[in-house]
């Protein structure tokens, strides 16, 4: 089992430059883990090849995305591209490229999608109503499918809602370490492991 | 009853059913704008964004491309919200003010315990989220934004599977749901059977 106490753990944090990513990196480094930073900004093929060179115990997608506020009648089709790419397509693509490296982990590999409670169906989010929320929700759907299909491969796919970097603490590392996905797939959790609604 | 299709042959078929047909491709912003212009000043009680594609249902997860995901989202999610937004003035001048999206059980994250059909699922989940946001924004305008689940129906999309519902059964169920809709239902996703679809 990969945990904060496992100093040999190799942890990849995508979006390490964000407040949540940086905080997670510091926490894992303080446990002695080997942390590799990553970003969705560059050439994805190159990044996937770099990250996939050695076994990975935990991958965390902690990327940030700030969508401009729009009313529905103000929307233009091109407005949607950035959120769809950044929040849904690129994480799915990179996750699939890292599957072999996760399977090579000594324990169950973990691949964590950090999301926001405001991206759920029950929490209104005026700021990201159309340009963020739908694509985070799409990513939730993709991660759920991945969690079902990868559970038999020994990879746990988790979705954890974190709204504020100040809530990122050792409890989150414990939640990531202790959560095992059932064959029915993952549930949306908060940082403490409490189940939330999709 | 106004109905749309992407080509003239389909419009002819719609006219034979008694609908007033219009050409519309919801992946084309110019086509949506042209429809809105033709319908300017026409009150509409309901707009149902029904167009949808399945994409490549057999595509493995690791093979999903940007073109595939974007293409499915473009029709199932983006086109739907852009269409109802373009026709908002018509809804505001209508009596019932119903903005309806065609969802699916495949949109339900909690019901998914078998994976597959990644882009289609994601597009319908995103549609649900779009409609939830529409419901929040348009509630003050008295517009009911609801999602419908047709069920697994014998259509081209399902290759007319024997396991599917007859179209008449699905449509009759959804019509029954639509007839009962009011502003208290805004933001719901309701099946042809009247049951809410879990998120």
Automatic annotation (TrEMBL), chain A:
Q: Which InterPro entries match?
A: NAD(P)-bd_dom_sf
Please give the Gene3D superfamilies that the UniProt record associates with this protein.
NAD(P)-binding Rossmann-like Domain
Q: Which domain of life is it from?
A: Bacteria
Instruction: Specify the protein name.
Output: NAD(P)-dependent dehydrogenase (Short-subunit alcohol dehydrogenase family)
Q: Which organism is it from?
A: Kaistia dalseonensis
């Amino acid at each position: 089992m990969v945990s904060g106490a496992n100093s040999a753990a190799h942890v990849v944090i995508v979006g390490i430059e964000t407040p949540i990513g940086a905080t997670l990196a510091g926490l894992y480094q303080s446990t002695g883990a080997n942390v590799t930073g990553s970003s969705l900004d560059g050439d994805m093929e190159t990044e996937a090849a770099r990250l996939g060179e050695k076994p990975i115990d935990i991958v965390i997608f902690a990327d940030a995305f700030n969508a401009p506020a729009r009313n529905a009648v103000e929307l233009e089709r091109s407005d949607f591209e950035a959120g769809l790419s950044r929040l849904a397509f690129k994480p799915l693509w990179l996750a699939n490229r890292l599957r072999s490296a996760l399977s090579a982990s000594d324990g169950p590999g973990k691949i964590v999608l950090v999301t926001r409670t405001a991206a759920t169906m029950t929490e209104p989010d005026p700021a990201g109503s159309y340009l963020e929320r739908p694509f985070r929700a799409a990513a939730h759907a993709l991660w759920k499918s991945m969690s079902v299909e990868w559970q038999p491969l020994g990879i746990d796919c988790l979705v954890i809602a974190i709204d504020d970097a100040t809530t990122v603490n050792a409890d989150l590392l414990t939640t990531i370490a202790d959560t095992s996905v059932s064959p029915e797939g993952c549930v949306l959790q908060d940082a403490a492991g409490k189940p939330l609604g999709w | 009853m106004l109905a749309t299709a992407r080509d003239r042959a389909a419009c002819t078929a719609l006219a034979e059913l008694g609908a007033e047909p219009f050409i519309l491709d919801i992946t084309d912003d110019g086509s949506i704008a042209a429809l809105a212009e033709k319908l300017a000043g026409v009150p509409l009680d309901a707009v149902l964004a029904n167009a949808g594609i399945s994409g490549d249902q057999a595509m493995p997860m690791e093979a999903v491309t940007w073109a595939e995901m974007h293409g499915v989202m473009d029709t199932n999610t983006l086109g739907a919200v852009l269409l109802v937004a373009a026709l908002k003035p018509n809804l505001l001048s209508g009596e019932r003010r119903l903005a309806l999206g065609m969802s699916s059980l495949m949109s339900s994250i909690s019901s998914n315990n078998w994976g597959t059909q990644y882009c289609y699922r994601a597009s319908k989940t995103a549609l649900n989220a779009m409609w939830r946001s529409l419901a929040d924004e348009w509630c003050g305008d008295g517009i009911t934004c609801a999602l419908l689940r047709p069920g697994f129906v014998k259509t081209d999309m399902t290759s007319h599977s024997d396991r599917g519902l007859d179209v008449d059964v699905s449509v009759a169920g959804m019509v029954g749901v639509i007839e009962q809709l009011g502003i208290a239902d805004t933001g719901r996703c309701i099946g042809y059977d009247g049951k809410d679809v879990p998120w």
